Amino acid sequence: MFDFLPGFDLSHFTTSFDYNDMHLSTEEPLIRSRELLPDSKEGRTIRSEEVRGLRGATDNLVERQKAKIDAQKAEIFRLRNWKERYAKRYREAKERISELEHDIGKVSDDHQETLEKYDRRIRAMADHLERTEELLAARSAELAGAQYFLSTTDRLSEADVLSIVRDLNENIFQVAANLTEEWEKLGSSRTSRFDIDQRDIDSFARFYGPALIQSAIDRDPAAVTFLVQSCLCYLAMKYTSSWRHDQELATLGSVYKRLSDSGRYTSPATSKRDSRILEGQAISARWRSLTHSYLSEPPPHSASIVKRVADVLWITGSFSSPQRSIDLVKTVALSGLETIDRLALRLDTAFMVEVASSDMSLVFETPLTVFDETRMTNEFGSDEASTPGRRDKVAGTTEVGVKQSVCGGRDKGRRTEVLLKTKVVLEKDVVDL
Please, what is the average pLDDT of the chain? Predict the structure, then answer.
């Protein structure tokens, strides 16, 4: 321990010191009065310098030990504080754990009670559902027929119907243009317009305006095109009104009219108002659809269409006989006329069978009808017809329109709207050709 004292061997130094003795033995007056200390057992003299060195080393050792002890005491104090602090936190954590376990137990009990309550409700609802399904099955079996009869589900959409009508109008225009092109190649085979039978002209006047007929007689190509278009539009409208085919269908049409017309029915036999309340769209349209489904399909109208178009061309004075006119129509436009007939029959089936949510029909404007821009469009696209005070009249229909109506029943009347406007040519425009 005392190796740092040079030349001083303490291996045989047997003197023991404590702190009090050492301080007493190192008083400065005592050392000064003695230059030499007693000899050691080996006879060596301990000098004062060695004593002072020993005293310094001892003091240094004491200070170091005291510092170490103080550090250990401080660490013990700090560890005790930590122990108390963590012991407190441990107690708090333990109390919190106990509280949480209590809350969890309470929540679990509440959830268990809630689950049992819901389970009872589910079993009750399952029993109710089972009884309801049994009742529904019984009622469904009873109402199966009525449900089918009252269905207003359309098998053909409104867009599909309008697409067929547009195809029809396109084919009508194409046939009229082709016939006019071939007709222009023919010269007049009559010496006078008075060779035309007036009865033919009068019969056409029901479907075409007088200005249009006169322009066709004067061999105006545009007027001939419009005249053929108007003829085909009228025939398409006629062939899509199936209740008019024969007397039997006319009778069925009368029944349907009683079902679907707005207001109360007036008996033609007694001229008295029928007290029966009219049916709604579901019943009337379903009756129409089912009745028409069991009727025989109408025969093709191609031959009749050829004859009517040939009559229109006959009044232009370009043929020596009506048969020549028929031959031209068959040669030039038979395929197109068959397509028009097929489209008209397709629309007839759509209107009468496949559309039940409303009553649809083609619209043909009667000649000399006042132009109405709410349901018509002008072939020449002129806006003059909308000028206040003008009452321009229709000369012919060049494209059929579509309207639909819904019967409200129970005296609610019938609601009608235009789905596709009719395209017409006006008298004033024909005069200006």
Answer: 76
